[in-house]
Amino acid sequence: MDHNYRTAENENGSARNNRGTRFVQQELEALSTAHNGAPRIFAFVDDLFFLAKIQETARKLNVKVQFVKSEKEVLDAAAESEQAPSLIIMDLNNASVKPVPTITKLKSKLKKQTNIIGFLSHVQGDLKIKAQEAGCDMVLPRSAFSQNLPQLLRRHGSSTDLQ
Asked: How are beta strands 22-24 and 41-44 bridged, if at all?
């Protein structure tokens, strides 16, 4: 069945749905990889939906994201590449690790050179406060994390150091 009647795209890339509401289609632009190929972004995520979303977005942006199960994996990878990770993504509902103690350990070892971003359900206010106290730089609801994922990966996955 042809659904072309649902959207009408105009010359500047914006489109209208069948109700006349305008929306802009976002293109993801791949980043160049000038560093040694070692991942600078690590993710503690076991939720298959978010794992697939992060993998697909990273692939489109040409950014390496390594999925890990323990803080030891992150610290070993940082020691091998002689470069601290740029970003650590933490699913605060991850059942395979204890997120709050893990954040505390990573923040004490990696200091301010690594950003830690956690995501959780919007109704988990207590967990959000605990994660921020543990050292999480930013805690986002799942929906905001999904929406901002391309910008986060683009910013932290680029080969230029902003430090």
From this structure: unpaired
